[in-house]
Amino acid sequence: MAMGVPWALCLLACSLAGAARSEPPALQKLDAGSAAAGNARAPPRAARALSAPLIADDGRLVACSGKDLLAFERDGSIAWVAPLGHTCNHSISPVLARDKVYLVAEDKVIKVTPPNAHTAKPASEVFFSYNATPGRSEQIIGMSVSGSYSSLFLTIRNRGLFVFSLQGELQWSLGPVLDWFGHRLGCEGNVSGCYFDSAPVLDHSGGAIYILNTEGKLYSLYIQSRALRWIQDLSSLDKVMTVAPGNGGSLYVVFPRKSIVVGLDVSTGNISWQQTIGPLSNEKTLPTVDSNGWMSIGSLDGILYSISPDGDMRKFLEKTANDSAIHVDPVLDCSGFSMYVAKTIVEGKLIQTTGGYTSVSMMKPSRILVNLLAPAIGTIYWTGEYPGELSNLLSSRDLNDFVVDETILLTLLSAARFDNTTQCNTRSKRKPSLCKPIQVKFNCFPLCFYVKWHHD
Known about the structure:
mainly beta, Methylamine Dehydrogenase, Chain H, 5-stranded antiparallel β-sheet, 4-stranded antiparallel β-sheet, 2 helices, 33 strands, disordered N terminus
């Protein structure tokens, strides 16, 4: 099995280098008056975790922390804070549609209207809430949203897939057991233990939804209805997988425990090709798909694997692979054709494979190498190092009050257009301001890692 390496890159302000690392104080919410006055500053030394971020249409980085949703300017200062009233789920990323942000908090979906964060109007409201059945595990597993289809898609463990209009009305729902002309499909065996086990994945080009169940079945449904396109049984490879849509009629499925990637034909669900990659950091690892349809995924063996829609594979960053690992997903830049990739340089690494499963042990991470590359043309545009030229990436302002991991770092690089070698996609829905070079003043930061050893 590819063992996860539970470390986190920790970027701390120089002034906090000697501070006590006990439980940090909670981030104080902004009141409407101070927000409206533009006094959007977090209190000092409030080192709190952030969820996986998104880049809004205005180029700001948006993430939740505790009971707040925050937006950061590209220099690390807080643009606005929206109190949620509920603790957000850090494992489920916020999503964006029509200038509204949707996120999961406890047993609810919260809708946030960013412009209201600078006024006396409530910035957040409960979009959806449910009461769990006593004795059953019914957490929200995942969420997707589509502005084009004016719908929000929600998976609830042991309950099913629910589709709402963006006005909050239930449009339709579906469970994992389907009746197809008198035949039961999806959960042919143990029905009581079979349920949808992934976030709904949207493929706008094909008008389809993809969702997995616990038995290794992949469902393809039409976005605008509950009509079934096909169900593909992939359990012969493994029951744990992640899915990402490509383009040109392709769909990528990653089996993280087996280090396998397959390409499916979206019209039939049949496997078109299969490739073996290096061990992955965790079972939720997702490939990053660029505008050319190439999927890229980083491995603990230090190599970035990129695969075309036809199944042709390229390997990147092999020169530094022996003493490095890639354990976070790449992040696309605003061109859509290139991506930022972070790899951790370590002083020692041991990879062992037994019976088809791989374990990876590493020691003493020393620095981070960040590359901007385009998989389809095989070009590496830029390489930065931390500590090094990237040490001054963050300003000495509000983002210092939060723990920043590699995913936050890569997303901030993308939002800030740290290197402008590539041209932004002018057809993107993002506003042109995202694509303009900016000047940011920086401060210095020490680097720290938290490493938990894995012993065989």
